[in-house]
Amino acid sequence: MSRIIDFSKFSSIKIGTPIRVDVMREKEPLDGRFLVGGANNLLVSPTPPPLVVLGKEFEYSKEEDRLLKIGGATKSGRIFSYCKKRDIGGLEFLGKLPGTLGGLVKMNAGMKVYEIFNSLVDVTLLSGVYTKEELEFGYRFTNIDEPIFEATFEIKKGFDYTLLDEFTKMRQNQPKEPSAGSVFKNPDGDYAGRLIEAVGLKGKRVGNAMWSEVHANFLVNMGNASFDDAYSLISEAKSRVLDEFGIELKEEIIILYS
Ligand SMILES: Cc1cc2nc3c(=O)[nH]c(=O)nc-3n(C[C@H](O)[C@H](O)[C@H](O)COP(=O)(O)OP(=O)(O)OC[C@H]3O[C@@H](n4cnc5c(N)ncnc54)[C@H](O)[C@@H]3O)c2cc1C
């Protein structure tokens, strides 16, 4: 099965074109295809590699044996509502973090010290079920290179409303325009946003893409920005920061082109 996804509407940064993608309705290997989740961390060119998404079969949250089991395609907002309604703690940040379960686990997404791996128990991949201890993970990194079909979490009693307020406050310095979150990972002991600002690129615009005035590590779409607009700003920031500071910025967003 396949469907057409218009990435200028589907992706959080609203950049891209309509592309035909496969839909995985049962567990199967990637076979050279790139798995798209909610496209909150992607910059998709008009010529990406073959793409695939998980079908609705993988959208669920359920409690089993005192553990929380979540399907790979379930959106963070749905997981958040499920936990809030049932007074489950540990995933409050998902109220402020866009993504699907698979994308969140693959990226070890989080806010400050609150990361998705904190309460993770195991993940279900095609090759089997792996406990957290069997996986490698760190800041916005895991070594998972297969589709994540399901993940299991501990059930901690007590949804924490104070934490939710904290996350809401953290979001107040984020730009309102469409973006894909932070473009670069923070290099050790520094901030990508500080470096982009230091080389004079904060507020720099090419076409309709711009380094945000509010948060320099956010690339924002001011309206119908093209892939090329965004890509040229990213390339410029990398080379300027390397030239001036000798620091190699590493993308947090994933750029898809072939
Ligand atoms: C406004 C904004 C703010 C953000 N703030 C933060 C933040 O504070 N912290 C943070 O960590 N991130 C942040 N992000 C980035 C984004 O929310 C996360 O990276 C999220 O995990 C992306 O999930 P996704 O489903 O959209 O994945 P996608 O963007 O579609 O894909 C990201 C990666 O996950 C992989 N993937 C997707 N689904 C699966 C699956 N089922 N199995 C295996 N791999 C899969 C993809 O192949 C790709 O490698 C922000 C994004 C936006 C737009």
Outline the structure in words.
The protein is an alpha+beta fold and 258 residues long. It folds into three domains: 2-57, Uridine Diphospho-n-acetylenolpyruvylglucosamine Reductase, domain 2, CATH 3.30.43; 58-170, Uridine Diphospho-n-acetylenolpyruvylglucosamine Reductase, domain 3, CATH 3.30.465; 175-256, Uridine Diphospho-n-acetylenolpyruvylglucosamine Reductase, domain 1 (Alpha-Beta Complex), CATH 3.90.78. It has six helices and 20 strands. The chain has helices spanning 7-10, 76-85, 101-106, 161-170, 192-198, 227-245, and strands at 2-6, 18-24, 34-36, 42-44, 51-54, 61-64, 67-71, 88-89, 110-111, 114-115, 120-125, 128-131, 137-138, 141-142, 150-154, 156-157, 205-206, 209-211, 219-221, 254-256. A hairpin with a 2-residue loop joins β13 and β14 (141-142). The longest helix has 19 residues, at 227-245. The radius of gyration is 18 Å and the shape is globular. The site of flavin-adenine dinucleotide (FAD) has 31 residues, from β3, α3 and β9.
Task: Report a brief summary of the structure.
Helix content is 22%, strand content 27%. It is an alpha+beta fold and 258 residues long.
What gap, in angstroms, lies between the N and C termini? 23 Å
What pattern of helices and strands is seen along the backbone? EHEEEEEEHEHEEEEEEEEHHEEEHE
Determine the CATH topology of the largest domain.
Uridine Diphospho-n-acetylenolpyruvylglucosamine Reductase, domain 3
The tally of structural domains comes to: 3
Instruction: Count all strands and give the number.
Output: 20
Please state the second-level CATH architecture of the largest domain: 2-Layer Sandwich
Share of helical residues: 10-25%
